[in-house]
Amino acid sequence: MTQAPPSTVRARVRRVRYEPEPGAPTAGPPLPAGPMPPTAGPDGVHEFAEVYHDLARILRIALEVLDHRRPLLQLDGHFAAAPLRCWRVATMRRRPRTPAELRRMRMCIPRPGVAEVAVAADVDGRVRALAARFERAHTGWRCTDVRLG
User: Fold this and answer.
1) What is the pTM of this model?
2) Domain count, the chain
3) What's the CATH number where 106 sits?
4) Fewer beta carbons below 10 Å: N end or C end of the chain?
5) What is the pLDDT of residue 137?
């Protein structure tokens, strides 16, 4: 078996616009006087944490409703009509053996006023996936879609 000779193509390096010309000083532009303006720092992080805790609380209530530890009416202010019907059906079909538990929650905010959540929940000794979409309403966060896998 014979091997092909190694490629004789040489890589070409092209100068990118931000690179200095040969022999030019490498110092960047002068820094502005005074402190830098704040970016999405602590306030954005604080707001994200608040939303995360609010949604985790709502989902814990939903899991307690699923376990028949709370009445379904406690989700009225937090769920829209369609996801509330889905959750009612899931609650009626379930005969709880062990309490459902929120294990891990991941959240993203695709645009202001909307949050999407993926949860790993321990339901009857099995790990189940729960996905939900929340939208900010006048009274707080409201679930507009929910799926329990």
Assistant:
1) 0.67
2) 1
3) 3.10.450
4) N
5) 86
